[in-house]
Recover the amino acids of this structure.
């Protein structure tokens, strides 16, 4: 809990220097960002021991929250914007998150490795997100994709991928959904 309180304090301070989150969401930071990020954890199967890859971590959500709540887990936060990279690294150090790392580069340049969980919050439309990040996934990788109000529609529009995705209702926003599941690969291709 102390790590999350540190995150909230640092976020409020840093938000005066750069627009990490909207002022309105900062007023409800625990619900809008902390709980919204933490609600992903129950969807991770027991025994998942590979790294967690968070795409476009930005202000630190969900990456910093996951790293704070699962300090034994290696959390890799991908962010390409310089000021956000600096922010994430400062917050990570202040929170004592030794197993969390910031990969400060565009996703396309991140070295391929297999991970246990892939998350992305407001990173890219689903089809584009899979194009960019399927190379990090195995048949056992859990995908956790908070998609807001577009979750069901993005899933229905998804073509050319073999998957076992479904939409879970967000606990923090009755209009929002989280795409959860596993990816088997592109249709017509074998891994």
């Amino acid at each position: 809990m102390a790590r999350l309180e540190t995150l909230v304090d640092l976020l409020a301070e840093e938000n005066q220097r750069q627009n990490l989150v909207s002022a309105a969401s900062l007023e409800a930071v625990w619900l809008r960002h902390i709980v919204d990020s933490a609600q992903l954890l129950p969807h991770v199967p027991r025994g998942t021991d590979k790294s967690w890859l968070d795409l476009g971590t930005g202000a630190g959500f969900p990456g910093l929250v996951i790293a704070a709540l699962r300090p034994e887990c290696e959390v890799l936060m991908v962010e390409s914007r310089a000021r956000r990279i600096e922010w994430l690294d400062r917050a990570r150090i202040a929170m004592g998150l030794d197993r969390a790392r910031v990969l400060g580069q565009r996703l396309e340049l991140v070295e391929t490795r297999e991970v246990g969980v892939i998350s992305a919050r407001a990173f890219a439309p689903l089809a584009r997100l899979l194009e960019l990040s399927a190379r990090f996934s195995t048949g056992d990788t859990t995908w956790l994709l908070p998609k807001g109000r577009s979750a069901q529609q993005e899933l229905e529009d998804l073509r050319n991928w073999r998957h076992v995705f479904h939409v879970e209702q967000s606990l923090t926003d009755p209009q929002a959904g989280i795409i959860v599941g596993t990816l088997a690969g592109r249709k017509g291709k074998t891994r």
The mean pLDDT is 94. The chain has seven helices and seven strands. The helical segments are 2-14, 23-27, 29-38, 63-69, 82-94, 126-133, 151-157. The longest strand covers residues 177-186.
